[in-house]
Design a protein that fits this description.
The complex is a heterodimer of chains A (323) and B (346). In chain A, 76% of the residues lie in helices and 0% in strands. With 323 residues, chain A is mainly α. In chain A, α5 packs antiparallel against α10 and α10 packs antiparallel against α13. The radius of gyration of chain A is 24 Å and the shape is globular. With 346 residues, chain B is mainly alpha-helical. Chain B has a domain of 174 residues: MetI-like fold (Orthogonal Bundle), CATH 1.10.3720. Chain B has a two-stranded antiparallel sheet. Chain B has a two-stranded antiparallel ribbon with strand order 3-4. In chain B, a hairpin with an 8-residue loop joins β3 and β4. The two termini of chain B are 31 Å apart. In chain B, 46% of the residues are buried. The N terminus and C terminus of chain B are likely disordered. The chains are: A mainly alpha (323), B mainly alpha (346). At the A-B interface, α1, α6, α7, α8 and α10 of A face α6, α7, α10, α11 and α12 of B.
Chain lengths: 323, 346
């Protein structure tokens, strides 16, 4: 186990280094891209472009630029945005993280509960109309673009049905911190949570159903039935527990991808000032330091989470350690 | 590495309701075709996809012969005829508060069927034209992605050793990036070229970006398949007959991994269409004057509360398309790999 963890950690360090290099190269070494020209204003003179390039440090050799940027990002933590020199990138990401975490954790709770419920119901009612009906709903959930679903939700809860009893409690778009007002925090996030979780409820319910049907004929399930356990007992304690191994590893990665920037579309649609919205706002201005920092933040988070998942998985299933 | 025991071919399996004599002497492809022909749900999904495809393909017919409206240029001062009356496409002060400009809403006639956007363009015609772009990028990038992934997986799985190590590490790296962030980074950079090498408005940019970011998702399962197929007795037999590497790869192994790629293909199109719409929604996918379902949803964002159809209609098209492709993918998997179903049965 220790050897496995060490091996995984060494792999992690390599992946993180490679990610910083590739991200840097994408943003600063793609031919035809010249951030200095972008910030020199409209139709700049050659001298202005050169001055801006020097000011931004873009006239130095690439490895030096890389080292400087990494130093300002990780060690001195004073990397600033190109567009707004007062915006320090690292504190901005730090401030945005709780918003993204609130969104993703809440959605995760919803999607775990409902996907297990839907998966179990589909298996229990296999052979009746309920099973295909649930699976079609799950498939529809997977097929909807999340930003479109969010807009439809906004249309209904903010406008068309807002004045009816059902949705008059929905506050305007935006975010209220948990520490400022927990109740308002909850109200502001409930529609985004539901929107974000739809895709995952559909996906996890389908995976869970397939897994449950898969273990249905295993010898230990037959044994459990033969020794007289009730069907509910077999389903919950024997079948569901085995199926949870896939579930857990899927969950770890999906959670990481969402916190690492995958929730961007939901944040944009609902105006939640998380890391995704920060990325989105810097997209239009070609604010390379901010985009680069948020991409790195996301990639780091995912790489670290996937290492954790691997270790947890190895703990759950000893066979993994050997390969 | 798994151990391989010699025994009866485990690949021959019966789909539910099939008797052994029914499949005797038939090739795997014919068997899959038979199973698919009986799968009404999958056929229905395929029919729906074809229908959407054909409808979008006929966008110029609709725009030029039925609607006679403006699709790509701005049309702020245009007029159109509704129920015999000539009305402004963009009405002044027609909104809820009586201020600002208000584009015409759904007329439910051929012209401006579901209304216009803020620049006076016919949304219905744009949805059809956008469908051509969305489907084109979706199918194109899925095809490029599957083709490259298949070739790379074939090379890695066949030659193993250094080739495999290098290719698989590269794939792991792309995999380590969150798909959306990688696509966003590439798209932002390519769109902001000050001395363009590729025209930023080119549809190849989103197509290639989406193809690249999904290559590892196809590469991984196919490589596994190549590794295990390589160990089969018929490959060994071909080796003992002195078959060349090329023959081994393309005549012995490739036909046997093709079914995996075929099952993945419609699912990849579904994924790439969703990704394209997301990138276009963020403004870094398809660029004006082209339209795609994603850009139309973005156009509709400002009109959401007054003219919701602008954003709703392209979304419905995306849902229907992606849903039909997902169902088709499920059906193809059941037809080509019925073990999944057999295991799922009693």
């Amino acid at each position: 186990m220790v050897a496995f963890v060490i091996r995984r950690l060494i792999g992690l360090v390599f992946v993180l280094f490679a990610i910083t290099v590739i991200t840097f190269l994408i943003f600063f070494a793609t031919p035809g891209v010249d951030p200095a020209r972008q910030f020199a204003g409209r139709n700049p003179s050659h001298a202005t472009v050169v001055a801006v390039r020097h000011q931004l440090g873009l006239d130095r050799p690439l490895p030096v630029q890389y080292a400087l940027m990494m130093k300002r990002l990780f060690i001195s933590r004073d990397l600033v945005s190109y567009g707004n020199q007062a915006l320090e990138v690292v504190p901005a990401i730090k401030a945005a993280t709780p918003v993204t975490l609130s969104l993703v954790i809440g959605a995760a709770v919803i999607w775990i509960v409902f996907s297990i419920l839907v998966g179990l119901l589909a298996v229990v009612f296999k052979g009746t109309l309920i099973d295909p009906l649930l699976m079609i709903l799950a498939l529809i959930g997977i097929s909807m673009p999340v930003f479109w679903l969010g807009e439809v939700a906004n249309l209904l809860t903010q406008d068309r049905l807002h004045d009816t009893v059902r949705f008059s409690w929905v506050p305007p778009l935006g975010y209220v911190g948990f520490t400022a007002n927990p109740w308002q925090w909850f109200l502001h996030l409930i529609i985004p949570w539901l929107t974000l979780s739809v895709l995952y409820i559909g996906f996890y319910a389908r995976v869970l159903r397939a897994d449950l049907l898969d273990v249905q004929n295993a010898d230990y399930i037959r044994t459990a039935r033969a020794k007289g356990l009730t069907p509910q007992n077999v389903l919950i304690k024997h079948m569901l527990r085995t199926s949870m191994i896939t579930f857990v590893s899927l969950f770890g990665l999906d959670f990481a991808v969402l916190v690492g920037g995958g929730a961007l579309l939901t944040e944009v649609v609902f105006g939640l000032p998380g890391v995704g919205l920060l990325t989105y706002h810097s997209l239009n201005g070609l604010d390379l330091p901010v985009i680069m920092a948020t991409v790195l933040y996301g990639a780091f988070f995912i790489a670290i989470m996937s290492a954790i998942v691997d270790v947890v998985y190895a703990r759950l299933d000893p066979r993994v350690r050997l390969s | 590495m798994a151990e391989f025991a010699f025994g009866p071919d485990e690949d021959v399996v019966l789909a539910p309701g099939e008797a052994a004599q029914q499949i005797a002497g038939k090739s795997p492809w014919r068997l899959a075709g038979r199973r698919l022909a009986r799968d009404r749900v999958a056929l229905g999904a395929f029919a729906l996809f074809l229908l959407i495809f054909l409808v979008c393909l006929s966008a110029p017919l609709y725009a030029h012969h039925l609607a006679h409206t403006v699709v790509f240029g701005s049309n702020l001062n245009g007029t159109t005829t509704v129920n015999g009356k000539t009305v402004q496409v963009i009405q002044q002060g027609g909104g809820k508060l009586g201020i600002g400009e208000n584009p015409i809403g759904p007329t439910w006639h051929a012209n401006y069927f579901i209304g216009s956007d803020t620049t006076g363009r016919d949304v219905m015609a744009r949805v059809l034209y956008g469908g051509r772009v969305s489907l084109g990028i979706g199918i194109g990038s899925a095809a490029i992605c599957c083709l490259f992934a298949m070739v790379l997986a074939l090379l890695a799985g066949f030659f193993r050793g250094a080739t495999d190590a290098v290719l698989s590490r590269v794939m792991d790296l792309i995999w380590a990036f969150p798909v959306y962030l990688l696509a966003i980074s590439l798209a932002t950079v390519l769109l902001s070229q000050t001395h363009p090498i590729i025209n930023p408005a080119s549809l190849w940019i989103p197509t290639l970006i989406i193809a690249i970011v999904y290559i590892p998702y196809v590469y991984r399962p196919v490589r596994g398949q190549v590794l295990s197929t390589r160990e089969k007795e018929y490959v060994e037999a071909a080796v003992s007959q002195g078959a060349s590497n090329r023959r081994l790869m393309f005549n012995e192994i490739l036909p046997n991994i093709l079914s995996t790629v075929i099952v993945l293909f419609p699912l990849m199109i579904a994924t790439t269409i969703l990704t394209e719409s997301a990138l276009s929604f963020l403004g870094i996918g398809v660029q004006s004057p082209h339209a795609s379902w994603g850009t139309i949803i973005q156009d509709g964002q400002d009109l959401l509360y007054t003219r919701p159809w602008v954003a709703i209609a392209p979304g419905i098209m995306i849902v229907l398309t992606v849903l039909s492709l997902n169902v088709l993918g499920d059906g193809l998997r059941d037809a080509l790999d019925p073990r999944a179903k057999i295991r799922a049965k009693e």
